[in-house]
Amino acid sequence: MRTDVLSVWDNATLSVKKEIELPHKKRAQTVSEKNATQLIDNDKYMLVFNFTPATSVSVIDMLEHKVLNDVDIPGCSLIYPSGKRGFSTLCADGSMLSIQLDEQGKVVSETRVPSFFNVDEDPLFEKYARINNVGYFPTFHGYMQPVDLSGPVAKPQEKWDLLSASEREQNWRPGGWQIISGHPDGRVFVLMHKDGVNGSHKDGGTEVWVYDTKQHKKIKTIPLESHGISLEVTKGDEPLLAVTNAKMMIDVYNPKSAKLERTLSIGGDNANPFTLIAVE
Hints:
Strand content: over 45%
Structural class: mainly beta
CATH class of the largest domain: Mainly Beta
CATH superfamily of the largest domain: YVTN repeat-like/Quinoprotein amine dehydrogenase
Number of domains: 2
């Protein structure tokens, strides 16, 4: 018989401290990604995305170690923390749904944010980088859509172009699995590939382009020695850039010099490091 649990790990010892049973057995079983599970309200609550294929979010009390509630989010997917105790979720019509919860995990407000992108002409990637409570969502065709998630209702901001005219003529596009990562200093790192076409959004990339989110411009290009699938930048004053390559190994680059410093193997043929999470 299948049993679903939420495992709580100790960062220092890498050992399991607690398991919380998820009784309804409806969590989304997909390739791992950050926004399928998120902590909110100073880590007091964990949100878990469900897909049966009906979509909902389970609210878990991390102090009492119990499931409080399931919140239905029909037509919407994934979890983007917003406000004090809530989340927003991307919807199939190009809108967002913003929800705030009380201490018992019940919905106290629910707001539909009008459609702000065209899902047919230029959809958003569901992966984003978050800097100072602004979410940066790349689009399939190479634009950046910021969304302010600091308050209880998501507020889309003006999108900006990731590409110059010549880069757009060469069909440079974002692509891969975890294609974007942000640093607290305002930089975002995006995995890019040339000669993009409809359907190449999962193809990975040959370069990482670094953008200044304040100036809306590219400030550096990091050529990859091996084709990249996912990336993550570490925190701190001297960050490193980790890139999962096509052999499921992790290449570590110095963002300042754009040089490959080392390659890490984390389990051989059994490893699938699609999702990378920088430890703060």
